[in-house]
């Protein structure tokens, strides 16, 4: 049924259908009866999936990745829709329109998306106002923060600190995004020399856990350097990975892909590299950092593989688009079944167990 609906939705421009679908989700969960019905349909009641990491209780490990709910307008919707948490943003200190449209493209043959949104959002003050109005008892919400486009790289630390001070007190954790390919010069901030003062500024601005989000296109040596820096500074964890600028191995016609232009590729094509980065990070830092794995997760088998590889939490965006409203429930139910089948009493027992097995 959803496959047919997806074909109908794909007739409309991607951003248009995004706004329509998001509006429907917010409407369905705005009032108590709607939230109750939605929760009954979409939430997997699996106690074995509950976990506590960096002092925050998560009812389930799969969360919505940043990029869908840029301004925290749907912060109360994601729990009833089956997610264990959500990451809002990316939010910048100043409101900005992002890049010119069209800036979001579908690759159905690859179950992928290309976006060059450019951190379009209404600014940290607007997102903070939405977070301040959250209903009590909802799932954890992380605030993903990025650099305002007009701010020079040398002033990035102060820019991030503004967002952190506004959003940190209202969020359960903060994610520092230095890995989007759609803001000029942003990925240069992943270099340790630039990243250290930026992360220190954010850490000094908040009392909640701070994580950093990295790109899949980093070299292995740079991944190690960021991991070591995260441990040195006392970060809570790393989100791995963001979208990729690579285009190799796609099923979509190369000329058609080239015609779409620049942007970050997400979805199934990112899965292999995202898993590689996760395994490398866990081998480097073990349980000293919480690792959140995102990139190409579509099935419960893949979710379980990420847990065994060292992920304490998972995220998805493109998988949700192609998988439909029951996607999070399917992942969670399948993951709980995998835990039972392999003799794990709870999720935390399985985190990183694949490394022990290979050893």
Secondary structure topology:
Layout: H1 2-9, H2 14-28, H3 32-42, E1 51-53, E2 56-58, E3 62-64, E4 85-91, E5 104-107, E6 112-115, H4 124-132, E7 141-145, H5 156-167, E8 173-177, H6 192-203, E9 210-214, H7 220-233, E10 237-240, H8 254-260, E11 264-267, H9 271-285, E12 290-294, H10 300-309, E13 313-316, H11 318-323, H12 327-341, H13 347-350, H14 353-358
Parallel strand pairs: 3-4, 3-13, 4-7, 7-8, 8-9, 9-10, 10-12, 12-13
Antiparallel strand pairs: 1-2, 5-6, 6-11
Helix pairs in contact: 4-5, 5-6, 6-7, 7-9, 10-12
Give an overview in words:
The chain has 359 residues and is of the alpha/beta class. It is 40% helix and 16% strand. The strands form three sheets. An eight-stranded parallel barrel has the order 3-4-7-8-9-10-12-13, surrounded by six helices. A three-stranded antiparallel beta sheet has the order 5-6-11. It has a two-stranded antiparallel ribbon with strand order 1-2. Helix 6 packs parallel to helix 7 and helix 7 crosses helix 9. It is globular and about 50 Å long.
């Amino acid at each position: 049924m959803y496959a047919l609906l997806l074909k109908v939705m794909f007739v409309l421009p991607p951003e248009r259908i995004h706004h329509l679908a998001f509006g429907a989700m917010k409407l369905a969960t705005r009032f108590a009866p709607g939230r109750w019905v939605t929760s009954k349909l979409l939430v997997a009641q699996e106690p074995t999936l509950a976990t506590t990491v960096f002092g925050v209780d998560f009812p389930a490990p799969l969360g919505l990745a940043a990029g869908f709910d840029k301004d925290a307008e749907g912060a109360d919707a994601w729990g009833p829709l089956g997610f264990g948490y959500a990451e809002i943003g990316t939010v910048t200190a100043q409101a900005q329109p992002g890049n010119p449209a069209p800036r979001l493209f579908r690759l159905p043959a690859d179950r992928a998306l290309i976006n060059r949104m450019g951190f379009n959002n209404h600014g940290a003050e607007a997102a903070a106002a939405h977070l301040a109005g959250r209903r009590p008892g909802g799932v954890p919400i992380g605030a993903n923060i990025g650099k305002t486009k007009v701010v020079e790289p040398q002033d990035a630390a102060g820019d991030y600190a503004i967002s952190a001070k506004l959003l940190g007190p209202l969020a359960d954790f903060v994610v520092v995004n230095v890995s989007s390919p759609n803001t000029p010069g942003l990925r240069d901030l992943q270099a340790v020399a630039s990243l250290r003062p930026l992360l220190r500024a954010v850490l000094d601005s908040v009392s909640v856990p701070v994580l950093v989000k990295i790109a899949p296109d980093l070299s292995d040596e740079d991944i190690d350097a960021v991991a070591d820096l995260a441990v040195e500074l006392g970060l809570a964890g790393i989100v791995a990975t963001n979208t990729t600028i690579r285009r190799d191995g796609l099923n979509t016609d190369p000329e058609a892909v080239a015609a779409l232009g620049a942007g970050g590729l997400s979805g199934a094509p990112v899965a292999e590299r995202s898993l590689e980065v996760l395994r490398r990070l866990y081998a480097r830092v073990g349980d000293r950092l919480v690792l959140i794995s995102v990139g190409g997760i579509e099935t419960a088998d893949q979710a379980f593989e990420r847990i065994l590889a060292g992920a304490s939490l998972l995220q998805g965006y493109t998988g949700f688009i192609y998988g439909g409203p029951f996607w999070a429930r399917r992942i969670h139910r399948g993951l709980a079944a995998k835990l039972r089948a392999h003799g794990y009493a709870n999720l935390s027992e399985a985190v990183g167990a694949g490394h022990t097995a290979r050893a």
